[in-house]
Amino acid sequence: MGRRKGRRGRAERSADQDGSRSRSGDGGGGGKGKGKGRRARGPGKGGADGAGGGASGQRKAVPFGVTRTAATRKEAGVAGEEFYADSNALLSEDHLREALRMRFDPDAWRAAAEATAGSGPQYGRALRKMVQIGTLGTLLRGWYTLPDGDVVHLARKRLDKAARGTVCVDYEAEAAADPASLRGSLLAEVDEWFGRDVKPGEVPLQTQVCLIQGDVLETALALQRAVGASARNVCVLVNGSYNMPGGGWKKGAAALEENLHRRTSIVEALEDPYSVVSGAQWRYPLPQVGGLAIPAACVFRGSEPSGYPFLERPAFVSMVVGWAFKAPPIEGTGPSARLGKKERRLTLAKIASWLDMAVEVSGNSPRPRIFVASPIGCGVYANPPHDIARLFSAALALPRFAGVFDIVAFSILDPTGPETYDAFADALAPILTLRADSGLTPALLDLVKPPADAGPSTTMLAMVCVALCAAAVAQGNTSPSTFQQKTDHFDNSNTATFSQRYTVNATHYRKGGPIFFFLSGEAPMEAFEFQEVQAQLWAAQRGGMFVVLEHRFYGQSMPAPDFATPGLSLLSSEQALADAAAFAVWFNADLEARGMAPGPWVVVGCSYSAGLAAWFRTRHPYLVVGAVCPSGPVQATLDQSDFLAWFEHAAPAPCVAAAKAGSAAIEAELARGQPGLAALSTAFNTCEPLTDDDVFWFLWNVALAVGTADQFSNSVPENTLTEACDILAAESDPIAAFAKIVATSENIYTARPGGNSCVHLSQSYFIADMARPDNPNRSWWWQKCTEFGYFKTSVNGSSIFFPSYSLGLDRIVPLCEAIYGIDGLAPQIEWTNANYGGKNLVADNVVFTNGLLDPWHLLSISSDLPAPSKVKAVTYEAGHCATLNAASPDDPPSLLAARKFVEAQLDAWLATH
């Protein structure tokens, strides 16, 4: 027995495992090791894997390559070995030995392929034949060797079982024999569906539909790993040959089916070269509707661009093999091109049968269920890609497939150009949840790696899609650029400018495509990234560009050196609207100068900036064709008394009861005087002991920390309402529960010094802290004091929070004077409503979306406005700006419908421009 590092013997996984690794000997000397239930075979002592069993005597691996001259040989990384240009001589004894010995250098193979790329197709075919020989040898022996010497064993019993379990299904024959059977009835359903000519998006799908630019097997394995799906539940659709197993794999052809023969065990199911299957009841040619269902195919080699490397960990997927029409009759041209009527109906039936077979092959395996398809029939087979995509969409919409698949991923790697990928992107736009133009890269997958103890689940799967969706649309974002913006748009004598930040994502942009213009609000532009996800997708799906402009005095867009009161005189919504208009004019001119015809603009915002978006459409209708305004509080109000009161409507009854109990317990402590204040100081870990002068400030901040949790009640990106209610339910001491919520609150009223765990709940500290000219919190408070109010009050029991105390304007308004020297707020708030129209906005092509659990909807527009206004509105059962968040499996139907409503409005606006 040869020596083994760590004295570990070679072991083979059981038939239900994907594969295993074990160390080979130090010097390559093989011999016999003990396997699991049988002898494991390894490289023999003194054989192809080593000479004499010692490291020093081991024969060097012969890299693959084809050269004609010594110079070319050097470029290909080949030394001391003769290679022949003739493709038959290429398969010499040495090369056959090298291919069969399971020791393979993908870098050398790739270098040889690159060196001979321009010398004719026969060289590439010959190189692929050598890979095929190695693949057949791997399947025959049941193991292969990695470059580091590790031996990987295949689950031979499982491979044999999969080959025997491969079945051929002829749906036309089954329909003729028993039209009422599950398979036989499919064609009747297809005929009815075909007559309706269902368009993408016409029937809502309960499936995550993804378009991924990448290798189909790499996509399948990436999704499988990401969600922990079983092999049977990840099904790959293979565009097969009608009458020849594997198509041209024996000739070294490069199409998908041939590629899979070199990388997987599919050859055993289709060709059965080692007579694993005896008495098979099917033979080629394949049926017109239906095909082959393979319960498990082992993937153990990488893609051709990576040099067909052996994988460190093989994996199993199921496969369905069908065939598409070759050079069929086509009606029309361009995106509207269609297959001839007969071929189109049959292609829809084919696709439906493949989906049905994918469901059957998964059996009773636990969810999730994933179907990965290539653009079958496109490319050299000359089927129109737009129409093939539309037919896939129509088949997925069949009632029998409702909710059956958790993910359907179209994985397209088009070496001839982006035409097919772009066609699928265009045709599937109404139903796409994810478009990853750079593939499912490790960086994206790392973002959504499930916990080690997380089992496969549809929730985990959908969360993967959510995170991938967010990552995919963000991957094209550029670093922020700056635009020289006027400091004061209303003082012609002031020619000063400042650097205003913006970003552009033009990853999916097509010339003349729409420009989605996102206005950041009362925070740095980076804070809105999650609220941009759906808008980024809308832009990507329509070949558009996504542009974000940072609001003045937030983030790094500073018209003044700090936030001192004199500089803040330049901060107003009017200045912000003028900023946006000046930027849009400049950006369009810049596009035209670069030969990029600007398309129509759509302005989007969230919360305060949603109000800006609505006002921007009314002020500058010549710059934007429409405005999307989620949770936009367009009605300014000094006293926002209904905000805290709404908690009782939005929160579950037990949570409301717990909040009442917490309020009552705190009031009881306050009734004890100084001992109660001391107890509360300890419970809330205040930085300064509470005094009688701090009672109002303390109660108001606690009420805001707990009572504003209902603003966000979405599962993504956060659910502060659920978090708050969970804390209230978990803590037996209601005061401790309130203290925990306050400690984790990011409310700006509870300022905390960096690194200090105590909480500042002293009004004197707040005023002193807000007096600092470098405090960025001064910006939003300035706008509240000068334009909007939005002060949340609770007086005479108007909310469940501290009904025995008055948390009113008489204590809040003086803060504006103390911080900024501002008096007389009410007239300024009234001017804001008179200036913009409040909830009586007169506009067209403006759509508001509002969550009924979010108290801000009370200051927004929640229903269509009567003439002369043409403002549209839709509501949903969720929280703040949820229509812009990435989709989540917990999204209620009303939220899904709201997003669809917005998209319909967008398409209507863009159709007229």
TrEMBL record:
GO terms for molecular function: dipeptidyl-peptidase activity; serine-type exopeptidase activity. Residues 43-56 have a biased composition (Gly residues). InterPro entries: AB_hydrolase_fold, Macro_dom-like, PARG_cat_microbial, Peptidase_S28, Ser_carbopepase_S28_SKS. Residues 9-24 have a biased composition (Basic and acidic residues). SUPFAM superfamilies: alpha/beta-Hydrolases. Residues 33-42 have a biased composition (Basic residues). It holds the Pfam family PARG_cat_microb. It comes from the Eukaryota. Residues 135-272 form the Microbial-type PARG catalytic domain. Keywords: Glycoprotein, Hydrolase, Protease, Signal. One of its GO terms (biological process) is proteolysis. Residues 1-63 are annotated as: Disordered. PANTHER family: PROTEASE S28 PRO-X CARBOXYPEPTIDASE-RELATED, SERINE PROTEASE K12H4.7. Belongs to the peptidase S28 family. This is Microbial-type PARG catalytic domain-containing protein.
